[in-house]
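Let's do one together. I've listed all components of the complex below, 735 residues spread over two lines.
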Amino acid sequence: MTSQEWKFTAKDIAAKPDLFLSGHRACAGCGPATVLRLIMKATRGPTIVTEATGCMEVVSSIYPYTSWGVPWLHTAFETSAANASGIEAALKMMKKKGRLTQEHVDVIAFAGDGGTYDIGIQALSGAVERGHDFLFVLYDNEAYMNTGIQRSGGTPHGAATTTSPAGKVVPGKLEYKKPIADIMVAHGLEYAATASPYYWKDMLVKVRKGLEVEGPAFLHVFAPCPRGWRSDPAKSIEYSKLAVETCVFPVWEAVNGEYSLSTPSKLLALAPQKKKPVAEYLKGQGRFRHLFKQQGKPVLDEIQRVTDERWERLLKKCGETPKTA
Amino acid sequence: MQKTVKQEMMALAGDQAVAYAAKQSDVDVVAAYPITPQTIIVEKFSEYVADGEVETEFVCVESEHSAMAASIAASATGARAFTATASAGLALMHEMLFVASGCRVPVVMAVANRALSAPLNIHGDHSDSMAQRDSGWIQLYAENAQEAYDSIIQSFRIAENLGVLLPVMVGLDGFTLSHTLENVEALPDEVVKEFVGVRKFATVLTHEGKTVPFRLDPDNPMTMGPIALQNYYFEFKRQQEEAMKNALDVVQQVNSEYAKISGRSYGDGLVEAYRLEDADVAAVCLGSTSGTMKTVVDGLRQDGVKAGLLRLRTFRPLPVEAVRSALANVKAVAVMDKCMSFGGNGGPVFHEIRHVLYEAANRPYVVNYIYGLGGRDSSPVELRSIYENLQGILRAGRVETPIQYLGLRG
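Okay, and this is what the predicted structure of the assembly comes out as:
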């Protein structure tokens, strides 16, 4: 089934058996668990999954139980993409030697933000440069949640984590999110995209597109973490929507380096008055609580300014004419 | 006895011999990163790939850490995987070595033994692989290029044995073996291919209640490399120890089976005893040093000294019984370490051999010689002095200096 043939309707998805199964140990309201379950719905045939050490690895594979309905391999924190290289190389040669029963096997590598932005970026960069045929999915919950909410290269500016606490003189994390998806686009890969689970259909189509590419593909998925964000577990999907509506996390894709906005963000480009202030997204999240006190105002303003700046830059890359609200 | 097959004499450096053995062993995936003195292995193998002489996916990874990760993943998928490294590269793999043995993947790796930094040094010693002795890998050390060639071929059989399923590293001394041209007898391609065979898989019970081959197969989904906590982790580790014990037999079986086709064997595969039958004084060493030591022993014998040598070919699993029985009648033993265990009261081989001899019926004197660090050469005269010291110990009836440094300045 190609992305055109499979309609990605709610009915289609409900009919397809789960490959990321219930019974895992993820927290209530876990964004990544929802993301993984949905993504596995978009697979198109025989698939091998490899995963970096992290929340999703830990909650899904506690021996002797497993939540995986597909063959699954974990080796270490920084190795998701290197594993994918080895799996893909093995499949290629085993097929050539007639030792593979399947005609084709897709390879998906999952990693969190730590396993992608930080410790895993070397292996990821190498695997993409070598052109292995695999889809790398970053589920970005914006900190090292598994080890107790430490900051990563994916933690946003101003967020309080246990290693970037909001103190008397430091207002949470000082640095900004590394533009990881742009970094991957710069590798010259055929397909890279960002997605949010609120716009599930958009996300699933992107998964399928990534799988259909013959070569490396990269998908950056926004994945709220109520424990780490100190947010209401019932609102994870709502935050996934707000992040897009405030342009904190625009959804787009780049095919052979050509950027284009995906519908949810495209609508905001066409109707800038609908773009919400970042404060609407930040408020309610405990990690940004300090920004809503008097001394947090400059940081809040700064976040708005940088968000707007990055949005304008993205609009240019997507060939959109910036419109003022 | 079965007639051995006709072989081709080739002039190969140790690294080339290793690459040639890997070429003949029907390897599916080679994932490797270059490092001196291993480079010739990956260069040679790249040439085989470029010339279409092998059916192998060569993954030219961006680091040794990824080399080992990719090898583990390829092996878990069902491929036969080979890699090679040295020194800092092996140290960078450290984390993944434990993952490889823990995942029970039969990866084979050549290690062109080289010193560790700092100060930086590219020459041969055993610091790199000795630092990995507890990583759950089988460790073989070759005496010459011929043995490096033979050991690589044998290693696939040892690693993939269903009672073992452990990764194997074959050490060859940096430059002394890796870069020195020797005469190597190579078996015909088809003979090696038949000897290594097609990889077989253990069968395991999946969470779906099916008995299936132990590999990543979409037809039979399996979770590999899971998290196992206080209630299961310990059992996983204990099983690895059992596999190591099984390897003691398998190394010997493979050694003798290989001898039938090639005419070459290395002691019993575990240890090689040289003129030990009636020896009073003996040295224990591993790797290329034993070549020189045999000449030294011959000279001493000519002078009427009852000298012998025990070469530890297999360091992991430690062949406890074989070492104890080989040294049963020796009165003074010098254990040679091309590695230091800082603050550890002697080198790692010394620790282990002395540990083995603690339960010997006639416990000999045991001293440690640390030598050759950073590739420093040890001359036959220096090596002979080890035996002379052992004779002195026997005359004096006591050990004055249990840990000595051979050829050290000042």
